[in-house]
């Protein structure tokens, strides 16, 4: 039995199986198979699309592995990070954490800058589970500090869920600083001065770049000094757009003009300005002398070398000189 040569030359195309993931909606066990057909989007974009489809806030959700309960890195490619996994879209909360330095002065809060960090984590996590890995990034032991609500001295337990904290900002201080406030009869601490920290909705408007760190993501806000330097830099760049560059006429030196046998510097006129454009006050009009055309002398006999050559050739027999004139 002979095999057709066309079947050997053109084998049937290999069929690529579509990639998919299992989406678990809400707290129920209902599962929906979602096809991953766009290899260009990230996990963050895919999560926002699914949140919009489910009627959730796309700026307050994240994708979590339903089996391990670990947050999936939103910066990864969706088609690779979500393939054949059970994914759950859960709500998250964004709040600010202010870390007071050891030399912080409560009498003059503006004298010592603080660190303000925006934190985003899912509502089911505890305060200890969120703050412990965050403070370890800044070499701070969570067991040696006190966490209170900003503006008060109300401490926060480790077991309280982030969902109960909501969008209220937190203040992290040392135990000695907390004792100083309580023994001094004070009942509050200063609140963060940054408007983004007091209004988490501004974080979405400013499009802050959060860095994923385990189950939480954080973004450190720039200090007032760094923000002022950035503003001055942008202001200087915008001003340079309106500065006119010096032309060639400006860089040229002023040429002196002879007036009555003396060399006096004259004012330079603009490029392209003729005599009819007028003169400056107190300046005599300068008239350029007309130059005579250069006449080229084409007569060869007026050349001394040619005359000498003709004199010697006249004595050579058989040579006849012809005058071209």
TrEMBL record:
SUPFAM superfamilies named among the record's database cross-references: Ubiquitin-like
GO MF, one annotated term: GTPase activator activity
Gene3D superfamilies (UniProt xref): Phosphatidylinositol 3-kinase Catalytic Subunit, Chain A, domain 1
Spans annotated as Disordered: 253-288
Highest taxon above the source species: Eukaryota
Cellular component aspect of the GO annotation: cytoplasm; nucleus; plasma membrane
GO terms of biological process kind: regulation of G protein-coupled receptor signaling pathway
Protein name as catalogued: Uncharacterized protein
């Amino acid at each position: 039995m002979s095999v057709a040569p066309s079947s050997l030359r053109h084998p049937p195309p290999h069929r690529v199986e579509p990639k998919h993931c299992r989406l678990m909606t809400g707290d129920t066990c209902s599962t929906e198979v979602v096809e991953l057909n766009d290899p260009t989007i990230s996990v963050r974009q895919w999560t926002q699309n699914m949140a919009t489809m489910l009627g959730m806030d796309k700026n307050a959700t994240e994708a979590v592995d339903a089996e391990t309960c670990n947050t999936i890195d939103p910066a990864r490619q969706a088609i690779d990070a979500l393939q054949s996994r059970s994914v759950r879209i859960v709500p998250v909360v964004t709040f600010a954490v202010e870390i007071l330095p050891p030399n912080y002065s409560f009498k003059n809060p503006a004298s010592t800058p603080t660190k303000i960090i925006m934190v985003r984590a899912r509502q089911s996590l505890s305060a200890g589970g969120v703050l412990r890995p965050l403070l370890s990034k800044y070499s701070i032991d969570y067991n040696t500090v006190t966490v209170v609500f900003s503006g008060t001295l109300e401490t926060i337990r480790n077991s309280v869920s982030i969902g109960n904290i909501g969008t209220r900002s937190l203040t992290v201080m040392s135990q000695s600083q907390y004792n100083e406030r309580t023994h001094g009869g004070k009942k509050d601490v200063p609140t963060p001065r940054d408007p983004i920290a007091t209004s988490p909705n501004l974080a979405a408007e400013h499009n802050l770049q959060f860095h994923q760190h385990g189950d939480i993501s954080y973004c450190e806000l720039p200090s007032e000094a760094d923000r002022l330097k950035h503003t001055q830099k942008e202001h200087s760049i915008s001003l340079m757009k309106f500065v006119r560059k010096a032309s060639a006429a400006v860089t040229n030196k002023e040429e002196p003009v002879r007036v009555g046998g003396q060399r006096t510097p004259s004012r330079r006129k603009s490029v392209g300005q003729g005599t009819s454009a007028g003169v400056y006050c107190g300046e005599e009009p300068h008239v350029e002398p007309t130059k005579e055309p250069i006449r080229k002398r084409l007569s060869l006999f007026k050349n001394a070398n040619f005359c000498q050559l003709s004199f010697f050739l006249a004595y050579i027999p058989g040579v006849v000189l012809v005058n071209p004139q």
